[in-house]
Amino acid sequence: MGALLFAVAACGGSSGGKSDDGKAQAGSTAAKAADDVSQAVVKVTPDDGAKSVATTGALRVSVAKGTLTSVTVKDDQGAAVDGKISADGAGWQPLQHLASSTEYKVHVTAKDAKGRVSAKDTTFATLTPKNTFIGYYKPENGATVGVGMPVSLNFTRGITDPAAVEKAITVTADPAVPVEGHWFGNDRLDFRPEKYWTPGTKVTVKLNLDGVEGRPGVYGTQSKTVKFTVGRSQVSTVDADAHTMKVVRDGKQIRQIPISAGGPGHTTWEGQMVISEKDPVTRMNSQTVGLGGEYDIPDVPHAMRLTQSGTFIHGNYWASTGIFGSSNTSHGCVGLHDERGGGDNGTPAAWFYNHSLIGDIVVVKNSHDKTVAPDNGLNGWNMSWADWKN
């Protein structure tokens, strides 16, 4: 019996040893697994699955007990949102606003003090605005323009946060030159360099307005790139006293044309003016510019607009040829001898029309009138660079 008891005891002792060893191994594995888990805890705002998220100020990423190593935010087309991790590695914020009506995916990685990595993935969707605005822009995409052409945007709603809107628009030039924006009222923003563009310059305008809150509850919808090229330089100077216009192309005078400027009581604005529209034939009615019923000409040929208030340089077929180069008889426009019809008829007006671009400069001097207002047409060149930047 002693032998039997010994055997049982020996058997029981062997079984107990295996049980204790298994528990020890399991505990060691669990401890090792726990030790491999990163202590870094990532938080993404807004929450995963959130809807109608604001396009500005809502997206933030932070980490506790660790530092961020990467943050990637992409829209549903795969375009990334620029952002920056803070110097201490504890947070990340976007450097741009988000687009409206768009789903975004967020992927974040972080590490704790022991270098252990944790990750987080979320998805959210931005708001769909009820009220929107766009900016009508000049010049058109692909255009070749004169050296005086600004980039001009007219917004469909008055803007109460101009800084946010202007930040979302970039205008770059090749060769590079500083370009600054200037607001005229709350619905127009123009961009230009300090001096006229250099001929041959390639200009790129990026409108990243989708999701910009231009006024409370009113959001931009445009995401567009516009490119145009600056052609040759042409600056034409009208001397109202001498009744002439000298056309200078790339620094050399190529023609002098007799003109008739605004007569007494209707003198022509002075200053630098930009050709903003060209029409082979147009109607001119004095009632549209507040002059009553003084004239209504249905077929003015070779008309090029200089101001929004109604100043044109255009062909004139109804006046005696003797007035051109000798007297000022118009209601404020600059007239050149022409024939009826607006065709390529070889007249001075036809020649000037055919040799002009949208964006060319026409300078008027010695008319004894005031300088044209910078916002009357595309005529911001009449502001100093210092005033333009303010």
UniProtKB/TrEMBL annotation:
GO terms for biological process: cell wall organization; peptidoglycan-protein cross-linking; regulation of cell shape. InterPro entries: Big_10 (IPR041280), LD-transpeptidase (IPR050979), LD_TPept_cat_dom (IPR005490), Transpep_catalytic_dom (IPR038063). One of its GO terms (molecular function) is acyltransferase activity. One of its GO terms (cellular component) is extracellular region. The keyword Lipoprotein applies. Residues 234-365 form the L,D-TPase catalytic domain. It comes from the Bacteria. Keywords: Acyltransferase, Cell membrane, Cell shape, Cell wall biogenesis/degradation, Lipoprotein, Membrane, Palmitate, Peptidoglycan synthesis, Signal, Transferase. Pathway: Glycan biosynthesis; Cell wall biogenesis; peptidoglycan biosynthesis. The active site is at H314, C333. Pfam families: Big_10, YkuD. PANTHER family: L,D-TRANSPEPTIDASE, L,D-TRANSPEPTIDASE YCIB-RELATED. This is L,D-transpeptidase family protein. It comes from Streptomyces montanisoli.
